[in-house]
Design brief:
Helix content is 23%, strand content 40%. The protein is α+β, with helices and mostly antiparallel strands.
Length: 432
């Protein structure tokens, strides 16, 4: 760590010697211990070493940025020169800025030191669990790793952050097969800072494996109807990213196309919907501690009981628009649970689908979306009838937030988000 701190400070000194007053430097060093498995057999164990340096300068309002994977003194000097050179061709914009110094800090997050032997045992156990509990599943790829990271952050205002962190990551890609029939592929994963629990019990891994086994035989939906869509946490995450990014994010607020741009502190969603960006929550593994500009991260409400409480704006866009910047720059979304079980939500649905995965382009600026529901199930009269082949769904994200049917009491924690299951009415579902 001392070496990284010295290099980050040297980088800022070199920039200031060039007469540039605003700058950011981050120097990091990672060690990754990784197991790979393909087709149910271990295929690789490796240890990767990764160094990186990122430099940003604001040269009389002109931004320059360089990132390299070497951190020796000569590479730092060249990176500074190249960054300044890049800034000289940029358009001046005084909205670029860096955070003032408040309280410098050193952070230790997660589990910096890996237990590689135990990690191997848990990985072997996961392979055995999948083979015994879900015999129709073929693991196309499994990547299990520990990441140990150190970084030193400095900016020209005197902000200094030093970080040491570690986490375990499990990533699976799989499909189910029976004879000549097979399901669509599906991915599941978690990150964790402990090896106390079997991997198959973490996140939604067990549920995802079981669902994919049921999707070998699919039936097309007949016709077109307006129904209810139930999003499990993984697909709900993509819905939230799209909706909040489209209505609260940098791009649409900056260009003025967001349909929520004048809705701050007004109702934009069902009152049961509360969404926070909360990287400091204990359930988020190695969450963001500070923003790229140098502000200490804080948890904040995006939507509270249906009321829009904050936009998700960077410091730059906040300066450009005269609005408040977001209190963090993460996507560590937490959605408050409801008071009804998933099974009871399903019992209350007359006609609809459970969307395991939604594939499609970005929604329009007004929130209209069309996507293909994959790894999905058809619901009729309160029962799951069968797995369905790829089915089109369409609607409007802003309307979706107001047409909430129910939020589950169950939540899934995958280390990056904490989300329930959520059902929405008045979605167009198009079959054959």
């Amino acid at each position: 760590m001392e070496n990284l701190k010295a290099k980050a400070s040297k980088c800022i000194e070199l920039i200031k010697e060039k007469g540039i007053e605003k700058a950011i430097c981050s120097v990091s060093s990672n060690v990754i211990s990784e197991f790979n498995a393909d087709g149910g057999e271990f295929s690789l164990f490796r240890t990767l070493f990764d160094n990186s340096l990122s430099v940003t300068v604001y040269n009389k309002g002109r931004k320059g940025f360089v990132s390299v994977n070497r951190i020796d003194d000569d590479s730092i000097s060249r990176a500074v020169e190249n960054c300044i050179s890049a800034s000289e061709s940029a358009t001046p914009d005084e909205a670029w800025d860096v955070a003032p110094v408040t309280e410098n800090a050193a952070f230790v997050k997660g589990c910096p030191e890996p237990d590689v032997d135990r990690l191997f045992e848990r990985t072997e156990e996961l392979m055995r669990d999948i083979a015994s509990r879900h015999p129709l599943i073929i693991i196309e790829q499994m990547i299990v790793k520990h990441i140990r990271g150190e970084s030193a952050y400095r900016n020209s205002n005197g902000v200094e952050y030093n970080t040491l962190y570690g986490e375990y990551s499990i990533e699976l890609m799989f499909s189910a097969h029976e004879g000549s029939l097979s399901s669509s592929f599906y991915g599941s994963g978690v990150c964790t800072d402990t090896l106390e629990k079997s991997f198959i019990t973490l996140g939604s891994i067990e549920e995802d494996l079981a669902n994919v086994e049921k999707q070998i035989r699919t039936v097309p939906i007949e016709g077109k109807f307006i129904g209810t869509v139930l999003f499990p946490p993984q697909s709900l995450a993509s819905v939230l990213y799209s909706a909040l990014g489209n209505f609260c994010g940098n791009t649409t607020i900056l260009d003025g196309t967001s349909i929520w741009k004048e809705e701050l502190n007004k109702k934009v969603a069902d009152e049961r919907i509360t969404v926070t960006s909360a990287p400091l929550d204990d359930r988020i593994i190695c969450g963001e501690m500070f923003t790229s500009e140098g502000f200490r991260s804080e948890n904040y409400y995006i939507i509270k009981e249906g009321i829009l409480k904050s936009f998700m704006l960077s410091y730059y866009v906040a300066n450009k628009t005269g609005r408040d910047r977001a209190k963090n720059a993460s996507a560590s979304f937490i959605m408050s649970p409801g008071d009804i079980s998933v099974s009871d939500i399903i019992k209350g649905i007359d006609k609809g689908i459970i969307v395991g995965r939604l594939s499609g382009g970005e929604p329009s600026t007004n929130g209209d979306f069309t996507g293909v529901a994959k790894n999905s199930f058809y619901i009729e009269n309160g029962k799951i009838v069968n797995a369905v082949s790829e089915t089109m769904i369409s609607g409007n994200l802003a309307d979706l937030m107001k047409n909430l049917r129910a939020i589950s009491s169950e939540v899934i924690c995958d280390g990056a988000t904490v989300l329930p299951y959520a059902a929405f009415d008045n979605v167009t579902i198009s079959g054959k």
